[in-house]
Every structure is written in structure tokens, then in C-alpha cells.
Amino acid sequence: MAETATETITIDAPPERVWEIAVDIAHYPEWARDIKDVTIHSTDAEGRPSEVEFRASALGRSTHYTLQYDYSNAPGELGWKMLRGDIQRSIDGVFKFVPLNGGTHVQYDLAIDLVVPLPGFVKRRAEVRILNTVRELKVRAEA
User: Fold this and answer.
1) pTM assigned to the model
2) For the chain, what is the total number of helices (H) and then of strands (E)?
3) Contact 97, 87 (CB under 8 A)
4) Beta carbons of 41 and 53 less than 8 angstroms apart
5) For residue 90, what are the β-bridge partners?
6) Cα separation of 122 and 106, whole Å?
7) Which distant-in-sequence residues (6+ apart) come within 8 Å of 134 by Cβ?
8) Per-domain residue ranges for the chain?
9) Which of 18, 39, 51, 60 has the most CB atoms at less than 10 Å from its CB?
10) What CA–CA distance (Å, rounded) separates 138 from 12?
């Protein structure tokens, strides 16, 4: 069964800036602490990454997974689903961007189903690290 989590934050930067950073997936390793490497396998008709392989740190080891990005609700949303993964059965997520008084309200929804069940305290620690991505996005956008 997939574990789900949601994080919301207000970023003091316009939605265009936040969107620009979110779709610049090749540069995630520069600001998203747990993303170690990104390989873009394909792009859409507008040149945006559509199939991307990630190497990330997870639970004291390195994990690999490939995501398919969905731009159908752009620029209000950036969604993704997992195509392949080594320790995951599925990953589904979405960033939602809403203009708010010159800034951006961001909601990050994530559902992950791992191959091996984890104890509750390990799941909570992993969830915190994953949701830190939203705070790291904020730091990058406000810099």
C-alpha cells in the first residue's frame, strides 16, 4: 500500500520563477540535497524533461528510479509517475503552484509504495527528508 504525504509552503517569489526551477530538472542536484544525479532520457515537444532517471540517497543507501513527467496542467501543476525503480513499486506526485500576493503557494503531494515494508519510525524519517524538497525549492526560488 502506498504511503502518502502532503507539504505546503508559501514562497516569496512569483509563480513563473518557482515553475522555472521546478521544470529545470537537470539542475535538481544543485539544490535538492538527496538528489545525487539526474539523467534526462527524453523531452516533450517543448523541450521539457519527460522521462528522467534519478539517483538519490534513501535510507542510508543509493536508489535509482525513473519518472515520467506530466505537463498537461502547466504551469499550475507539474506531475509525475514512476516508470521504473529499484526499491519502489510506485511513485506518484505533483507540485501545485498557486499565485498568492506576489508569491507562490506550493503544495507537494506524494505517494510512494516501497518493495520492502519499513518500520514506522523509518517511514517518518524518510517522509521528512522527501518533503524537505519543498523547503529546498523555497530557498532556491528566494535566493
Assistant:
1) 0.90
2) 3, 7
3) no
4) yes
5) 113
6) 26
7) 7, 8, 9, 106, 108
8) 3-142
9) 18
10) 8
Q: Which amino acid is at 100?
A: L
Q: What is the DSSP string of 95-135?
A: EEEEEETTEEEEEEEEEEEESS---HHHHHHHHHHHHHHHH
Would you say residue 126 has pLDDT above 60?
no
What phi and psi, each to the nearest 5 degrees, are found at residue 132?
Answer: -60, -20
Which residue has cell 522521462?
51
Torsion sign (Cα): 86, 114, 56, 22: positive
Single-letter residue type at 139: V
Cell of 64: 535509482
**What is the spatial distance between Cα 86 and Cα 17, in angstroms, rounded to a whole number?**
33
Mean pLDDT of the chain, nearest integer: 90
Interatomic CA distance for residues 122 and 124, integer angstroms: 5
25: helix, coil or strand?
helix
CATH topology of domain 3-142: Alpha-D-Glucose-1,6-Bisphosphate; Chain A, domain 4 (3.30.530)
The count of C-alpha atoms lying within 13 angstroms of the C-alpha of 119, restricted to the half-sphere facing its C-beta, is 3
CA distance 70 to 59: 27
How far is residue 55's CA from residue 1's CA, in Å, rounded to a whole number? 23
